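Q: Please design a sequence for this.
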């Protein structure tokens, strides 16, 4: 098939972050060690293909721990859970394995710390996102959620001198900076985390998209609709003036997007497997595109250990 597209530009880094890799491996290892079924509360990561593949292997995804049979193995997703969920799991005597991303756990600890010190905590995040629900659950009576600068303007707190902020880990860096700046304007005494809450992978993937956006007539981001970090990549590309679309896989590419385009950029969200990127590259190669360039903004070498119950069960299995 003829095409006007001459070149592909790949953003790097892209795809799996350390937290997603750890969470997916956790379910895979749990299935190996315990056999199927292994129950998982919510989607282990926000990617349809990952969930479908793990379902085929024997994982059972549920919305709440009340759906898990008593005493069964249950994995908590990478997005984290509230203390209330943990209590519910204990009440059902579940064999829980916590696959919460360590960077999300850091935010939970900050929330508890600020709450213990009497602060009103402003959480910058997206309403309804599982990570936000879990974090809010750490101190619901002390937490206020804001999604925009307008929300900050309308915010009412008990003591303006005793305010702290934390953020969801998968937000747009520039937008979050603007919201935090507005918080500092309204509450000059506000305190925040010692280190940025937005995860390294989110920051790096957005930087990579910014790097290639100007080179591209079209930028495609592979990721599922419920993936916050994937949606942010599309927004970042559009903010740079590039036409951009989120696709779950190559089958969602529309011909009208390609008309008159010469250079197509490709990135993927932190929960999208690399094989989906390769399938998209092959799609364009089949259309006669031979030039593929990759722009690497930073090398990532972050690794997280698997959860302790997995490591202990693996060691016990090897000892037998």
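A: Design:
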């Amino acid at each position: 098939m003829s095409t006007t597209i001459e070149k592909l530009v790949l953003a790097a880094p892209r795809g799996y972050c350390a937290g997603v890799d750890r969470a997916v491996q956790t379910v895979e290892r749990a299935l190996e060690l315990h056999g199927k079924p292994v129950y998982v509360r919510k989607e282990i990561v926000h990617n349809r293909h990952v969930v479908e593949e793990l379902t085929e292997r024997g994982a059972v995804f549920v919305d709440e721990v009340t759906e898990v049979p008593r005493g069964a193995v249950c994995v908590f997703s990478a997005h984290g859970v509230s203390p209330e969920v943990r209590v519910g799991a204990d009440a059902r005597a579940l064999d829980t394995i916590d696959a919460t991303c360590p960077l999300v756990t850091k935010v939970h600890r900050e929330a508890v710390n600020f709450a213990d010190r009497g602060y009103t905590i402003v959480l910058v995040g997206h309403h309804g996102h599982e990570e936000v629900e879990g974090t809010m659950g750490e101190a619901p009576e002390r937490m206020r959620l804001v999604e925009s600068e307008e929300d900050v303007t309308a915010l009412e707190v008990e003591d303006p001198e005793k305010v702290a902020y934390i953020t969801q880990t998968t937000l747009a860096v520039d937008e979050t900076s603007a919201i935090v700046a507005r918080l500092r304007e309204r509450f000059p005494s506000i305190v925040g985390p010692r280190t940025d809450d937005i995860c390294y992978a989110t920051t790096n993937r957005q930087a990579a998209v910014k790097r290639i956006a100007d080179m591209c007539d079209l930028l495609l981001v592979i990721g599922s609709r419920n993936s916050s970090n994937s949606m942010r990549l599309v927004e970042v590309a559009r903010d740079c003036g590039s036409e951009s679309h989120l696709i779950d896989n190559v089958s969602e590419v529309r011909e009208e997007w390609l008309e008159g385009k010469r250079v197509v950029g490709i990135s993927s969200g932190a929960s999208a497997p690399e094989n989906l990127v390769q399938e998209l590259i092959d799609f364009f190669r089949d259309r006669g595109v031979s030039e593929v360039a990759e722009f690497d903004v930073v090398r990532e070498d972050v690794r997280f250990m698997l959860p302790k119950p997995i490591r202990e069960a693996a060691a016990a299995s090897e000892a037998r």
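Q: Thanks. Anything notable?
A: The chain is about 40% helix and 20% strand. The mean pLDDT is 97.
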